[in-house]
Amino acid sequence: MQDPKLPLLLINEVGGTLGVLEAHVPFLKKHFQLITMKEFLESKECYRAQVQAIYSWWHKPVIDRELLKSLPNLKVISSAGVGTDHLDLKLISGFGVRIANTPHAVHSTTADIGMALLLAAARRLVEGCQIAVSSDTGYFSNNWLGEEVTGATLGIIGMGSIGYKIAQRARAFEMKILYHNRNRRKEDEEQAVGACYCGAIEDLLQQSDFVMLVVNLTPRTYKLIGKKELQLMKPTASLINISRGQVVDQDMLVEALQTGVIKSAAMDVTYPEPLPRDHPLLKLKNVIITPHVGIKTHKTTFMITEEAVSNVLAALNGLPMPSEVFPD
Amino acid sequence: MEENKHPYTLINVIGGTNGVYEDHVEFLEKHFKLITMKEFTENKQDLSHKIKAIFMWFHKPVVDRDLLQSLPNLKVIANCGVGVDHLDLKLISSFGVKVANTPFAVSNPTADLGMALMLASARRIVEGHQIAVSPDTKCFMADWLGEEINGATLGIIGMGAIGYKVAQRARAFEMNILYHNRSRRNEADEQAVGAVYCAKLEDLLQRSDFVILSVNLSPQTQKLIGRKELELMKPTATLINISRGQVVDQDALVNALKNGVIKAAALDVTYPEPLPRDHALLHLKNVIITPHLGSATSKARYLMMKNMVESILAGVSGFPVPNEVHV
């Protein structure tokens, strides 16, 4: 039996393909009574006035006008992860509901994935593994080469917290670091990682051996990387995307990869996810795709839930939330 | 002497899958008169006294007593890469021939590959890619998780040039670093990467989440990691090997991986290479293997070639040989 003194937290479901992780439930139940969308829809009248918070996990439950109208005492929506492009922030705010994400939990882990993809692309790791285990392999050719990461130039587009952690990691590989950002970072921050600001994104694209996308998705960053940008990149360069699929013009990317405009790409995100099974990106040898694993470790997923909970509790107690998100 | 400025240098073959790279030939021919094994075999009488050096590219040409005896004026063998476990150093030395390797050229790309393997294993990159492109995939499961790198403990076995570069990189990933080495590094070196010395290998094995092998292969390191060592490791730990296959007892490794004694392995090297196609390691889900890519970048291979040229030019002229390997 759940503790009736605890506030009601609405979640989509527990377990299954996209549900809140079973391992997190005991922790959540320490602070909340949990109610799933299924339970809510079956007994709306019973619960509607009691739901004070929603925990959005992998973009579910879908937050629309209908749901917001049916929850008159909803105070806060805490969204797992850092991206909030799946939420209509203005709409939610209009109902007087506060929103939070979980940026702190994800920074290091997402930076780790960015570097993992950069290294895998440079050294052709996925292809190499296939050769190592293939039944057709009789010997290893000594002429099968990748690109050197140490000393190469990394261009980071989006130098927020995640971008900065990537710069810290890349520096240890003696990489030359260029970055492009809405705002320039402070001089001591730049010096700490040896990062050079490129006011014009074209400069960064032309000089980089690896281009890493670490922006959030907004109307300004939608299709930020299109045909023009890909053509500015070196033909020996690799594009790494750990932002959102929509930051890249996917059709133009396919063309660029097929015609040698750029060398390779590695992406943890696409649009949609998953891609349709006949999409050309799935068949290109010079592409690595991972199934949106940026935050998918046992430790980080739990830290996300912890951060989400602390935001909800702050909101319910009328306090400032550690990671509040406001509409633009 | 003029001959020393453009010394006759024996190579195996140019081009093909394992020969000297075609795009290195121009630079080589600036400094050497290249003689292929085919040319040498066809013209031994004329050439055998002229050859002063061997440019050994991926273990070829094979240097045995016969070859050494047929090259009376051989001064130096330059070997590509850092490993010399395939050479009989005593035998070569007994003919008064010097041996050089290329440790500097391989350290960065090998350390990079060690990091690449550790990250790929922890975050399940290879499996993940297979899921992302599989015709059967309908959605991405929320409970499909990997292991955390940042904040984890990395144990480095072998803290030479490559091991140290691994430490420098791992530190930036906020890892805790332990190391075991024949001799302890100086305090400044340790502090620069936050590495803690484990005099006992057992200590390192018990405390590490990731264990990386970056030793050279010697009688002391043959089967350094066997059943006992694997059992000392955490059941959640991953073994990464960028040394030589023979540093690990492969049968013990297979057992350990099958029975959950350790969690996973990532290997750039095996014994032999490649493994027989029916080998157990090729069929375990918790293993990734790369085809000995440690130094496989254009930049590294070019630098290796240049280093070898320097060693040969010094060796044939009687100067101290850069990167000389002593018996």
Question: What is this structure's SSE topology?
Answer:
The complex is a heterodimer of chains A (328) and B (327).
Chain A (H helix, E strand, L loop, with lengths): L7 E4 L13 H7 L1 E4 H6 L1 H4 L3 E6 L8 H5 L6 E4 L9 H6 L3 E3 L2 H20 L2 H9 L19 E5 L3 H12 L3 E5 L6 H7 L1 E3 L3 H7 L2 E4 L13 H6 L5 E4 L8 H9 L5 E4 L19 E3 L8 H19 L7 E2 L3
Parallel strand pairs in A: 1-2, 1-3, 3-4, 4-5, 6-7, 6-9, 7-8, 9-10, 10-11, 11-12
Antiparallel strand pairs in A: 5-13
Helix pairs in contact in A: 6-8, 6-13
Chain B lengths: L1 H4 L2 E4 L10 H10 L1 E4 H6 L1 H4 L3 E6 L8 H5 L6 E4 L9 H6 L3 E3 L2 H20 L2 H9 L19 E5 L3 H12 L3 E5 L6 H7 L1 E3 L3 H7 L2 E4 L13 H6 L5 E4 L8 H9 L5 E4 L19 E3 L8 H19 L7 E2 L2
Parallel strand pairs in B: 1-2, 1-3, 3-4, 4-5, 6-7, 6-9, 7-8, 9-10, 10-11, 11-12
Antiparallel strand pairs in B: 5-13
Largest interface: A-B, 70 and 64 residues
- The percentage of residues in β strands of chain B lies in 15-25%
The strands making up the biggest β-sheet of chain B line up spatially as 8-7-6-9-10-11-12
CATH architecture of the largest domain in chain B: 3-Layer(aba) Sandwich
Instruction: Supply the CATH class of the largest domain in chain B.
Output: Alpha Beta
> CATH homologous superfamily name of the largest domain in chain B?
NAD(P)-binding Rossmann-like Domain
- What's the number of helices of chain B? 14
Distance, first to last CA of chain B: 29 Å
Number of self-contained structural domains of chain A = 2
Structural account:
The complex is a heterodimer of chains A (328) and B (327). Chain A is an alpha/beta fold. Chain A has helices spanning 25-31, 37-42, 44-47, 65-69, 89-94, 103-122, 125-133, 161-172, 187-193, 201-207, 227-232, 250-258, 298-316, and strands at residues 8-11, 33-36, 51-56, 76-79, 98-100, 153-157, 176-180, 195-197, 210-213, 238-241, 264-267, 287-289, 324-325. The two termini of chain A are 41 Å apart. Chain B is of the alpha/beta class and 327 residues long. Chain B has two domains: 2-103 and 297-325, 3-Layer(aba) Sandwich (Rossmann fold), CATH 3.40.50; 105-289, 3-Layer(aba) Sandwich (Rossmann fold), CATH 3.40.50. Chain B has a seven-stranded parallel β-sheet, with helices on both faces. A six-stranded mixed β-sheet of chain B has the order 2-1-3-4-5-13. In chain B, helix 2 packs parallel to helix 14, helix 7 (103-122) packs across helix 9 and helix 7 runs antiparallel to helix 14. The mean pLDDT of chain B is 96.
